[in-house]
Amino acid sequence: MKEIVVLSGKGGVGRSALTVSLGAVLAERNTVVLADTNVAAPNLHLIAGAVAEEVVEDWADKAAVDYDLCDHCLKCLDVCRFSAIIGGEEPIILNCFCEGCGACSLVCPVDAITVRPVVNGRLNILDAGWCRVAAGELDIGESGSGRLVEAVRKRARLEAARRGAGFIVIDGPPGTGSPAIAAMKGADYIILVTEPTSAALHDLQRIVDVVARYAIPAGIVLNRTGMPEAGVRPMPAYIREKNHDLLAEIPFDPLVPAALAEGRPVADAFPDAPFSRVLRRLARTMEDRLL
Question: Fewer CB in 10 Å around end: N or C, the chain?
């Protein structure tokens, strides 16, 4: 069983569309499980045409105040390193900032603060017919995305083991923060998706630096080539200069949004589209390198 993680330094470069179509092509000759670790905005199931089968609540530790015991000393406010406690006369805990460290409960002289588990999000298990999908869904404004990402990956591995899957294809979160690091940890290969724009070049450089620290084999897919936008020339030059592995160049293809509107992988909805033809070559490359 091999894990491929698809990352991007920024959002909006076609990462999820590529992930689903790559999974769909690999599924023609292998059993595949998809995982959506973009827990702040999961959408992989929409593109894959998957329907929910199981929902597991995700829990996180948060502090809570018993105002019947609180003596309003506000020592908890002073000790909180995450600015999760505010208030003038009495402490008010902001759940979206609370990390559940428990420092506030330790300094409270009257034991008015306790740390208790609360629902933080969900782990959704879905089925698309051609694959299973494990997807995390963080509640709005909640923290703990890295931990939920790890829970998604563990469930994806369980689903893969049950089915004897050859591949787990993981749609990672955008950016270079802890969710992206949690998504790539322990992977067999990382695909970095970008597009030929100046903003994408800047963020590609950042994610390349992060991936290099983990010594995981990686390659770049340049999506939407041929777009009539300024600032596109530095991208191929950067890839050549740094001697990065350019896995594929995907031309700008108007059939991609048409497939997404139908809730189907591009490679399935339009198998002869330029996007689909390149994805088939990319899938064969992944099979050759990993299997």
Answer: C
Residue 71, number of CB atoms within 10 A of its CB: 11
Of 35, 60, 33, 9, nearest in space to 177 by CA: 9
Q: What architecture is domain 2-58+121-290?
A: 3-Layer(aba) Sandwich (3.40)
DSSP class of residue 23 equals: H
What's at 193, amino acid-wise? Answer: V
> 67-111: which CATH topology?
Alpha-Beta Plaits (3.30.70)
Buried-state track 251-265, b at ≥16 Cβ within 10 A, e below 16: eebeebeebbeeebb
pLDDT tens column, 87-96: 888 999 998 8
pLDDT in tens, 80-118: 999 999 988 899 999 888 989 999 999 999 999 999 999
